[in-house]
Batch of 4 targets.
Target 1
Amino acid sequence: MYLRSIFIQLNNVKENNIPTKKLLRWLLQNAKNAKGQAIANIFVGITDVVCQLLWVIACKHAIDIATGVTEGSLLTTGIIIAALMTTEIFSRAISRWIHAVKGNKIRNTLRLRIFSRLMKCDWIHLYKRHTGDLVNRLEGDVSNITALITEIIPATIVVFIQLLASFGLLFYMSPVLAMSVITVLPVCILASRFYVSRMRRYNRDVRDSDSNIQAVLQESLQHKEVIKAMEQNSNTEQRLENLQGTLQEQISRRTRFSLGSFTLIQAGFAIGYLIAFMWGVIGLRDAVITYGTMAAYLQLVGLIQRPTMDLSQYIPGIASSLTAVERICELEDIPLEEQGDNIMLENTAGVRFNDVTFSYEEGSRKILDNFSYDFPPESVTAIVGETGAGKTTLLRLLIALASPRKGNIEIYNSDETHKASTLTRGNIVYIPQGNSLISGTIRENLLMGNPDATEEQIKEALHIACADYIYTLPEGIDSPVAESGGGLSEGQAQRISVARSLLRPGSIMIFDEATSALDEDTEQEMLNRLTENKTGKTLIFVTHRPAVIKHCTQILKIERTKE
C-alpha cells in the first residue's frame, strides 16, 4: 500500500495537449530575454558560413593554380586559407563560450521565473502533482527550452542562410547541377512536417515516463527508512525496473521511427552527392571543367547537404522542445493564489470559522460541514479527533492553503476583522509535524522565522523551545544541519522548529503534533514556557497527547462527517 501511494498523485494528474499556436506564442514571449544570445549565435553562424564559402573559392583557385589552369600565387592563396581557418576556429570558440556562459544564465533565469510562479500557485491545484515530476520539468524541460531559444532556432536560421548561399554559388557555377542536387530538399521538408508531429507524441511519452521515474527516485530516497523497515527494497526496485522498462521501450520506438526517417534522408543525400560526382567526372573527361571546379562542386554539394542534414537533426530537438514547452505551459496554467499586500493585525489575532463547508473535490465527501468555531485572541486550544476526521484539513484552511466552499473564515482582533486569505497568512505561524529543518546551519534555519532577529531574540526563542542545548554543540548555533535535520535527533529538530516559529511576527501559532518526538519531561517544560510566555499569542495545538491537552483553555473535537 505504501508503494502504491507514491503514484497516486501522478495518476490523478491529467495531461492536456496544448495547441501549437499557444506554444509558439509562449516561446516568442520568453525568447525576448534571450534575444541577445540568439543574435550573437546567428552572427557567429553567419561568419562561419561566409568563411566556408570563401574557403571553397580559395581552394578552387589554389587547385587551378597548382594545375596550371590559372596564374597566381600559391603563397597568397595559402595565407588567405589560413586566415579563413583561423576565423572559423575563433568563431566556434566564441560560440562555445556563449553557449556555456550566457546559455546557463538564461536557463537559470527561466527556471527561477517558473519556480517563483509555482511557489505562488494555488495549493489545491498544485498538491496533486508529485515533487519528482515538478523537479523533472524545472530541470529537463527548462534546459530543452533554453536550448531551443538560444541554440536550435539561431542554428536553424543560420542553416537556411548557408543553404541559400551555397545553392546560389553552385547555381552560379552550374545551374543544371544545382537544380539536380536540390530536388531532394522538398521531399525532406514535406517529410519533416509528419516527422515533427509524430516525434512530439513520442517525446511526450518519454518525458512523462522520465518524470515518473524521477518521482519514484525522489519518493523512495525521501522515505528510505520506511522502505528498509518494511522490507520493501525488492518491490521498490521492481517498480523502478518496470518504469525503466517502459521508458526503454518508448525510447526504442522513438529511435526506430527516427532512424527510418534518417535513412531515407541519407539515401537522398547519397544520390545527390553521386550526381555531383558523376557530373564532375564527365566534365573532366570532356575537358569542360577544371579539377578546381570539380572540387568546388563537391564542396558546395556538401555545404548544401550538410544544412539539410542539420535540419533533420534539429527536428527531433524542436519536437522535444515543443513537448517541454507544453509541459511548462501546463504548470503556468495552474491558478495563482490571491496576490497583494500582506494584511498584518497589530494586536493579538484570533480565528473564527462561520458555517464552513469544505471538500477537496466537487461532489466528494465533505470534510467539514457547516462547521463553526472561535479561536479567541490569546486562547490556548487543543484540536483532537480520530485520524481522517479533518484535523489536517482544518489547518490547511487556517493557513489559507485551501478556501471554504461555503461559509467564511475570519482573522480578527478587537480593532479589525479580515477574511482569511493568502494576504492574512502572515498572521499565522505554522509548526508542522515531524522534522522540517533544511540543510544549512542551525542559525540559517532559525533566521527563516525572522531574518532580522537579534541574538537576544534568538536566545530567548531557543530557551522557550527548550533548545538551549545547541550552545553546547562544538559550533554552537552555527553547527551544520544535514537534509531533514540529519545529525540531530527528531526531538532536537522539533525544538529548533518551535524556536524558529517563535521568531515569526505572526500572533496565531499552530502546532501540528509539534511535540510528538519529545520525552515527557522536555515536552512538559516546553509547554510550561510556551503558555507562560503566550502574551500576544494565540496557541492552537493539533494533538492527541494528554500533556498538551491539560495546558489548553478549550478543546475542539473534530468528528468524521458521514459519507
Note: The domain at 19-332 is CATH 1.20.1560.10 (ABC transporter transmembrane region fold).
Target 2
Amino acid sequence: MIGLYCRLSVADGEHGEESDSIANQRMILADFVTGRADLRGKERRFFVDDGISGTHADNRPALQELLALCREGRCEAVVVKDLSRLSRDDLFCVDLVEDALPSLGVRVIAVADGYDSLRDRDRPSAGTELGFKAIMNSWYSKDLSFKVTQSIRSSQRRGVNLNTVPFGYAKDAEGNCVIDPEGAEVVRRAFDLALSGKSQAQIAKVLNAERMVTPRNLQAKRHPEGKWEVRPGARWSGTMVKSLVTNPHYKGTLVLGKRRSVEVGGRRNRKTGDDERYVFDGAHEGIVTAREWERAQRAMTSGATGGAMPRSNRLFAGRIFCGRCGRAVPYRTDRKDDPAYTAYCGCWEKAPTVAVASLERAVNLVVRRQMEAALGVCRRLAEAEVTESERSRLAAGVALVKRRKMAAYEGYRCGGKTPEEFRACKAGLDAEQADIERRLREADRVRAVLGCGDAVARQRLERAIALSKRFADEPGLTRDMVEAFVSKVVIHGEDDVEIALAYDDIFSGVAGVGDGGGSDSAIAVDSGADDVDSDMPN
C-alpha cells in the first residue's frame, strides 16, 4: 500500500498558499503516483489531518495511523507534497525521514522538494539538504506561530473576541456577542439562587431538579453536526455552577488574554496575571447587572460548602483548618441552635466538633490581648520616644562624664584635691553617668521596638497599632477583627484549638510581650500575647 499524507493547519489555511489546501495536496499526490511506473497500479490510501498544526506529531491522528501501518509492515511508501506536511519540527522530521521510516523499509517521497529516500539515500549531500529544509520548515512554523500570536494579541487589545462566547450567549452574523434566550434563562436562574444564599452545590441540585439544560447539551442541540452529542442524563455540578457565577462576562465585562503560550509554537500555556489581561467593561449586554454580579460573588464566598450561614456566624469563614490534614473545616449546618465547625476530613475516627459560640469567646479573648499589647507598645513609644540626634547627644554625654572623672582623678593624683573631695566628685559623676546610660538603654529599647533597620517590621507594628485603635471600642468580636488579627484557627480536637495571630512575631520580639496566655473557655488556646507593660522599662 502507498500512503498519501496530507496536512493543513488553521494557520496554513489563513496565512498559507492556496497550493497547501487539502484538495490541491490530494490532486498533486494522485497525479504524481499515477505518473510513476514504480508506484502506478498499487493500492493507495489518503491520510488527512485537516486543521492541525505540524509542530507536534502526537496530536495528529491520521499521521499516527499511517505510522502504525508502517510499523506493521503494511505500507511500503509514504508520499507527501513537501516535507513540511510531515512535520515542521526539524529534529522529528529528519529522524522520521532518514532513520525511522527507512529502518522499517518504508520509502519516503516529498514531491515538491524533489526528495526520494530510495534514490537519495546514497547521495552524500542528501542528508545536508534534508536537514536544511527541515530547519527552514521549523523556523517557518515558529515565525508563523509568532505572527499569529501577535495578531491575536492585537485583536485582544482592541477588544475583539476571537474565542467562543460562554453559555447564555451567541454570536450574530457580524460576530457580535448577543444574548441567547434559552441559555440566558438558566444563567439568570443560577444567579437568583446564588443571591438567595444557596451554595454552588445547592444551586446545581435545583437546576437539575428543574431540568435546566446544560452547556454541552445546548451546544449539541444547536449544532447537531458538531462533535457533541446530546446526553439525556447530563447534570449540573457545583464546579459548573461556580465557573458560571464567577464569570464576569455575565455582567457585560469582556476579559481577554486569560492564558498565554509558554513558548512560541508550543502547546503548553499558563494563566496570566491581572496586569497581562485586557478587560473591557460594558463590552456587551449583561444577563445580570454589575451590582447583582458583585453581590453574587460575596454570597458565594461568604458561606461554607454546606450552605449559607447566617451573617452573625460568618466570623471565621476561610480561617478554620484541620490539625491533621490541613484542609479547610466546613461549617456544620444541621445544628441551627448551636452552630459548629466539624472536621469532616476523613482523617478522624470521630470528627471533632467545635461550637461557634465557644470558639468566638476564645478568639475574642486572644484578639483582645493582642490589641492590648499593641496599645501598650503605643503608650510606651509615646512616653519614651527618643530621636536619633538625642541618642547621639546622650552618647556624647557619657564620653564627657568619663573625661571629667579622669580629670578629677588626675587632680587628686597631683594633689589638687583631697581624697574626700575626689570621692564626692566621683560619686556625683558616677550618678550622672548611670543616669545617662539608663536613658541610652531606654533609647535602644525604643529603637528595637520601632524596628529600625527593618522597615517591614516597623510598618507591621504601626499597622497593628492602627487596627487596635480602630477596634478598641468594639463591644464584641467582628468579622473585620478576625480578618485583621487571626491568621488561622486549627482544630486539633474538640477541646484543643490553636489560634494563630497575625502579629505574634512582632510582639514576641519585645520583652514582656507575647509570653502566652490561656482562655477561660473549654477550648485550649495559644494566645501568643501578654500584658505589654509588665516588663517594659519604667
Note: The radius of gyration is 38 Å.
Target 3
Amino acid sequence: MRLRVLISSLVALAGAVVVAPVVAPAAAAGQPFTYAQECITSVHNATVHLPANAAPTLPSGAPLAAGDTVAVYTADGTCAGYGVWKEGEGATLAAAGTDSIDASPDGYATGAALKFEVFDVSASRTVEVGAAASFVPCDEVDVSVCRTGTYEKGTFHEVAEFESETAVTRTLTLAEGWNFISMPVQSPLPFGELLPACSSGYFYVPGEGYTAIGNDETLPAGTGAVVQCAADTTSVTGQPASPLVEVEEGWNLVGGTEDTVAAGAVVSTPSGILASAFFRLPPGEGYQPATELRPGEGYWVKTTAAGTLDVSGEPVGLASASQGGGGRLTEASRLVLTDANGRSSTLWLKEGLSTEQRRRFERPPVPPGDVFDVRFAGGYAAAAIDAAGPTEPRAPGHRIQMQGGAFPVEVRLKTDDARHRFTLSAGANEFSLSDEQSSVRIQQATDRFAVAAAQVPRAFELGTVFPNPIRDRAQLTYAVPNEAEVSIAVYDLLGRRVARLVEGRKEAGVHRARLDAGRLASGRYFVQMQAEGVRKTRSLTVVR
C-alpha cells in the first residue's frame, strides 16, 4: 500500500513567463515506473524546472541519484507530471491542467498550489514522500511569464529549494528469540530489509489469528507484530507516523509511534471500546500489564468494536479507568509457576469468583512458537473454586495450559485464604499444596496440569464409608489437621478388632483408606479412628 503525504501549502516567492509545454520524460531504462500512466502530460501544461542546486532529498536525507524521479501531484492525489533526475542538470517536468474532455478533475485547476513528491526508483522500489519547495523570485528568472508556485497554464516555475519531509530514526532492541514489536515510523522498506536480524514474523488478525509476514511486506506504523530474531540493535528510518492506530473488534497488536505515553492516556474512538489493559510480553517472561507504551514495542489490547486509538499521549481523558488490568484478588489463592530458566507466571483461584472479576484476568492470545505462557484452559489467569468439604470427594478441577516451560518447574502456593488446600495433578503424579506444604517441584516434563481445591482440615475427621452396606471392598477418607499418629480399625459388636486400616504417623491433609471385607461375616461393625486423644466412629454393614 502506498502512503501519500501531501503538503498543503508551499512557500511561493515568484512570478512567471510563457514557455512551450514540456513533455515529461520516460523512466530510466530498466527501472520500474508503475505510476507513469497516471501522469497527464499533454494538455494545459505549466513548466517546472528543478535545477541541480535545488537538491531534492529522499526520506533518509540522501540526495537524489541519476534516474530517480520527481513528480507533481494535485491536492486530491492526481499525478499531473513527472521528470527524471539527471546528475548535474536536475529535472524538468510538465504540470498538466485538468482538461475539458470530461467533468472529472484529471490535473491542476487554475490557482492550485504545486505539490511535489520524490520517488526512489533506483532501488527497484517505489518510495513516496511528501515534499515542499520554495521558488526563485520572478525578477531572477529570465522568462516573460512566471508564477509563484500556483498553477496556471503556460507558466514557468523554477525551484530554489526542495526538501522531503523530515525523516526520523528510531532504535529497536531485539532479544534472541521471539519479540513483540511495532514500527514507530512509516518505512518503505520491506520486512526482510528492515529487520535483517529477524528470520520470520507474524501479524495478528482479530477473528483469524496469526498470519505470516512475507519478506517483501512492509510493517505499517502503529501495527504490532511478533518476530523471531537474533539479538540485535537496529535503527529504522522513515516518515513520522500518525498517532491514530486502527483496531478491530477483539484482541489487537498495536504500538506507540512517537513518544512513550501512559497507557491511561490512550484515547479510543468510539469512546469506551477498550475492554482490557494493555499487555506486554518481555522476552523470556510471561504476559504483564503495561503501564506505558514505548515506541518500537508491541502491545496487546482488546476492544469491543472497531475504531481508532490515539497514542499521541495528549491528556484528553483516562481510558484506563474502565479497563481490566489483572491486579489482585482479595481472599484468594495464587499459584506461582516458575520454570528452570527463572520465568514465572501467576494463576489466581478464588471461591465465588464473579464473571466481572474473571474478565479482568483474560489473557491475550497464546504467543507463537515456544514462548513461555501459563493460563487456565479458556484463556484466563483466574478461576473459581468450589471447594469440597475436608472429607468429601474432590471438587471438579481446572486444567492448566503451559507452553514453553523448562523443567523442573516449581509450583508455589501463596494465599490470603488458608481455609483451602489444593491437589495439583502433573501428568500421572499428584501433589498436595497447603499452608504447611506450600511448594512442590515437578521434575518430569508434561503438558498435563490440573488443580482442584478442598477445604483445609481444621480438626480430625473420619469420613463416611463408601459403599455402605459393603459386600467386598470399601473406601473411606479421613482428615488430619496436623502431623500426628493415627490409628483406624474395624470392630465387631463385641468390641473385638477384626481389621486394621491405618497405623502410623500421617502428615496434615486428607487421606484415604481401603477396607477389604471379604473375610468378614455379614452383620454390623464399627470403624474407629484415634489420634491425639480424639476418637471418631462410623458404622458399617457387611452383606453377603
Note: Residues 355-359 form the longest helix (5 residues).
Target 4
Amino acid sequence: MTWLDWVVILAYFAGVAGVAWWASRRQDTAEKYFLAGRNVGWFAVGASLFASNIGSEHLVGLAGSGAKSGVAMAHYELHAWCLLVLAWVLVPFYYRSGVFTMPEFLERRFNPTARWILSLVSLVAYVFTKVSVTVYAGGVVIATLMPELSLFGLDSFWTGAVAVVLITGVYTMAGGLRAVVYTDALQTLVLIVGSLSLTVIGLSKLGGWQELRATCGSQMFNLWRPASDPEFPWPGMLFAAPIVGLWYWCTDQYIVQRTLAARNLTIARRGAIFGSYLKLTPVFLFIIPGMIAYALNQKGLITLSKPDQAFPELVAQLLPSGVRGLVVGGLLAALMSSLSGLFNSCSTLFTVDIYRKYRPAASERELVRVGRTATAVVVLLGLLWIPAMKLVSGALYEYLQSVQAYLAPPMTAVFFMGVFWKRLNGAGAVTALVSGFVVGMAKLACQVYAGMLPDAAQVSGLAGVLVGFGTINFLKFCVFLFLFCAVVLTVVSLLTPPPDPRRIENLTYATVTGEGRQEIRASWNRWDVLHTVVVLGLILCAYLYFTG
C-alpha cells in the first residue's frame, strides 16, 4: 500500500462519514431510526438492497468459489428473479400492513407466538451466517492486504476484523436505517467501479476472455453439474437454491427492511426491481475475478495459496498505486455496507419484536438505546462462532450457503404458504417453525461434530449415524427440510381450527378486499412490467451461455 492508496481510502471514508452525519440528524423516533421515516426513493432502496447483500462473503467467499469451482455458485447470483417475487408478490402485503419487521407480519397473519419464534430464529441465523461470515471475511481481506497490521497483540486478521466492526458500528448505531441506506447508495457505486476495474485489468493481464475459457476449461464454465457431484448436484441447485433465495430476498428482515422504508408502494416495488438489475452483476464482479485468479495462478503469473484469497490477492498483486486504493475502498464498502445493514436489522428485530412486547410503555429513546445494545451482543456471539466455521466447510461461500440451507426452509414454507393459503393457522406455523429449526440445527451440530473427528469416515455406531446425518449434501437436505416443514404446517393447520377471516383480511391473496386490489393495481404500470421482463431475459441469457 502506497501513500496514494491511503489518500484514496481516506477520501472514501470521509465521504461515507459525511453522508452518515447528514443522515443521522434527527433520528429521535423509532420509525425514523428503524425505517428511515418511510421516505426513501427507489434508487436508494435498490442500491441498499444490493450493497447489503454484496458483502465481504462475496468479495472473499464468492470469488474464492469462482477460483475453486468456476461458475457453479452463480445460481445464487442469478436469483435476481427472487427480487422480482418480492416486488410483485410480497411487497404489497408487507407495505400495506404498515409493519416494521417480518416477525410483526407473521403475528398479524398467524399469532404472537409465531412472531416471537421468528425473531429468535432470525437472530440466531444472523449469528451463524451474516455476523460471523462478514467479520471473518473482513479479517481475511485486511490480513491479505495489510499483513503487517497488528494492535494490542492481535494479528492482522483479528485486528482488521475488530476494526471494521467498530468503525461500521459507530455510524450505524448513530444514524439508524437512514444512514445505512444512503451510505449504501454511495458504497454501491464505489464497489461496482472498483470490482469492474479489477475484472478488466485481470483479463488484460491474462490475455482476454477466450484465454480465460481455455485455461479454466469447460467444466468451470458450466452451471449445471452432474447429479452425482458431491458439492453442486444439479437437482440440488435447481430445487434447493431457490428455497434459500426466496427466504433471503423475500422474508429476511435484513433485506426486506429496505423496501419497508420506501415512501410508497410504487417506490418499494421499483426499488426491488432496480435491485434485481444490480443483483446480476456479481457474476462479473466477483466470480469471474476468482476464475481469473485461478487462471493466472495456473500460468504462474500470481501466487494463490488458497481460493478464499483470490480477490484480495488480485488487488495486492495486479493493481497499480491509486487504483489499488480505489479497489480497497470497494472492499471496505462491501464490508461496511453488509455490517451496517446487519446491525440495524438486529436492533430492529430485538427491539420491536421482543423488547417492546414486554415493555409496551418504553419511550422512543429507550427503544433506540436497547436496539444498540442488542446489536453489540449479536456481534460478540458472531465473533465467538468464527473458530467453528471451518469445521462446517473449508470454503467461505459454501459454508454460508450450507448453513442458510439449514435455516431457510421453515421460514420460506411459512411465509409463502401463509400468503397463498388462507386455511393455514398459527398452530401450524409455530409447529413448522420450531420443528424445522430444531432439525436444521441438529444437522449443523452433526456437521460440526463430523468436522472435529480426525477420521470421521471410519467411525461406527451412534457416532457413525451422527456423522452420516451431518455429511448429507446440504442442497439435498434443504429440499427434504422444506418438504418436511410444508407437511407439518399443512397437517397441524388442518387438524386445528381455521383462522378468523376478519384477522387475516388483506393478509392473503384470497382475503384481499376490493379496495386493496385497486390500490395494488394502481401502484404499477407498463414500465414496471417492461423492466421485469428485461431482467428475466438477462437471467435466461446467462443460463444459456454458462453451459460449459
Note: Residues 3-398+525-545 form a domain with the Sodium/glucose cotransporter fold (CATH 1.20.1730.10).
